[in-house]
Specification:
This protein is α/β, with parallel strands linked by helices. It folds into three domains: 102 residues, 2-Layer Sandwich (Nucleotidyltransferase, domain 5), CATH 3.30.420; 89 residues; 138 residues, no CATH class. It contains twelve helices and nine strands. It has a five-stranded mixed sheet with strand order 3-2-1-4-5. A two-stranded antiparallel ribbon has the order 6-9. Helix 10 packs across helix 12 and helix 11 runs antiparallel to helix 12. It is globular and about 75 Å long. It starts with a strand and ends in a 14-residue tail after the last helix.
Length: 355
């Protein structure tokens, strides 16, 4: 046990606080080092024994994970939202690093997946595309806010098109507000150009992955969604079952019970009316949830096997919102099954277990 060392790293932009504990939980060393590749590696190499390292998910997490993995026994990137024990008691960088090391030693950390599956380039392309898409949406919302702020109805997409812009700008009587809208239009044009370039790069990189061809066979999963699925999931084998994918995508159902039992005449009885709260899990990958939700909405309105499946759910008396959720879960399960097995989509298996 003395040869086992657990290191907790509290990482910041300029410096990193490291705490080293042995197998019995005794603090062996604490140090403040520069957040620099050569400095961090030199410090880790100076620790003798079987070394395990943990740090919280953040901006530098992926970089440090890849940097340290060849030099230690294991690297655990943990989810800060699940580390409630870090919030107890006094808080400082040294205390946090010590707590991380102790939690790693006792195997009480919830890890975040950081795999090496050859999708690094595609992930960067996806991040660029998603960020530009988000920025474009923000600018479009700001443009409509300019008109709505003066009581001008602007529903639809015509307000954004180049050939209708002069007519829309004429509706703004104040010169300053008109100039503001014109600058927003210029910003939108630049973002649209960059977004098209990012989309092209994303599709080009996705063609290097065989899974793209399998996923595009699924209705409502086009080239863009297939590329984003590969970038966001990286590998289907990280999910043991479809329920794990549902939970990761924010499509998993959570049930919370309270006051489940009571005492009557000295005997323990289960309450007839349980206080149960059901809902979707909140700890999720929001991009993946938006992808499956948008795929379900599109598939439910277009002719095809998924539309028939959705109509069948409605005929059973299921509410439209729950039917769309069920369809999104079905699409996610089919994506996992097709990708794992590397086979073609078979609509005859739609009503069976997909994963």
């Amino acid at each position: 046990m003395s040869s086992v060392k657990c290191i907790g790293l509290d990482v910041h932009q300029a410096t990193t606080v490291a705490a080293v504990v042995d197998g019995s939980g005794k603090l062996v060393m604490q140090a403040i080092i520069e957040t620099k590749a050569s400095t961090v590696v030199e410090f880790i190499r100076g620790i003798a024994g079987e070394v395990s390292v943990t740090l919280e998910e953040g901006t530098c997490a992926a970089w440090l994970h890849d940097l340290l993995l060849p030099h230690v026994h294991r690297v655990v990137v943990c989810d800060p939202r699940k580390n409630a024990l870090l919030k107890q008691g006094n808080k400082s960088d040294k205390i946090d690093a010590r707590k991380l090391a102790d939690l790693l030693r006792t195997n009480m950390l919830s890890s975040v997946y950081h795999g090496q599956t050859g999708t690094g380039a595609l992930r960067e392309m996806a991040r660029s595309y998603l960020a530009l898409t988000q920025d474009t949406t923000r600018v479009m919302n700001r443009i409509k806010a300019v008109y709505r702020g003066r009581g001008i109805a602007c529903a639809g997409q015509k307000v954004y098109t180049a050939r209708h812009r002069d007519a829309w700008l004429e509706k703004l009587s104040e010169p300053s507000r008109r100039r503001r809208a014109a600058r927003l239009y210029e910003q939108l044009d630049q973002l649209e150009r960059l977004r098209k370039q990012a989309r092209h790069d994303l599709l080009e990189e996705s063609r290097k992955h065989p899974a793209s061809r399998w996923l595009r066979q699924i209705p409502s999963i086009g080239a863009i969604r297939a590329a984003l699925l590969i970038a966001l999931m990286q590998t289907p084998h990280r999910f043991r079952s479809k329920r794990q994918l549902w939970a990761y995508s924010g499509l998993g159902l959570e049930t919370r019970d309270s006051a489940e039992y009571r005492i009557r005449d000295g005997h323990l009885q289960r309450a007839r009316k349980q206080v149960t709260v059901r809902g979707l899990n909140r700890n999720r990958n929001r991009h993946l949830k938006e992808l499956f939700k948008s795929a379900a909405i599109g598939a439910s309105t277009q002719p095809g096997p998924f539309a028939d499946y959705y109509a069948g759910l409605l005929q059973k008396g299921i509410k439209p919102a729950m039917a769309r959720l069920t369809l999104a879960r079905k699409i996610a399960a089919i994506v996992l099954a097709v990708w794992k097995k590397g086979e073609r989509f078979d609509k005859t298996k739609l009503n069976t277990q997909a994963a």
